[in-house]
Write a structure and sequence with these properties.
4 helices; 15% strand
Amino acid sequence: MSYQTVITEDRRLSILIVLKETPAYTTNAYLLRDAVGQIFGHAASVDQVLGDIAWLAEQGLVKSAKVGDVTLATATARGIDVATGMATVPGVKRPMPA
């Protein structure tokens, strides 16, 4: 497994964890970029976060919606299960036990 793959999988998990902690499990791509950077240490671009949102949506872990020029991401029940370690999805890092 390459270093880039490890970073990508961890960033996807970080996005799901942030969504799990937000009201209505929803936030926009810009706030997600800031949160994964400040909380989890990922120096991600908005394009990377948008790509992750699209990938997570394809997996059924988030729902994505455009409001004007802003992309919103909302965690699904399956996404919350992955964020908490109750389910696993290849391509998303499994969280460490608490």
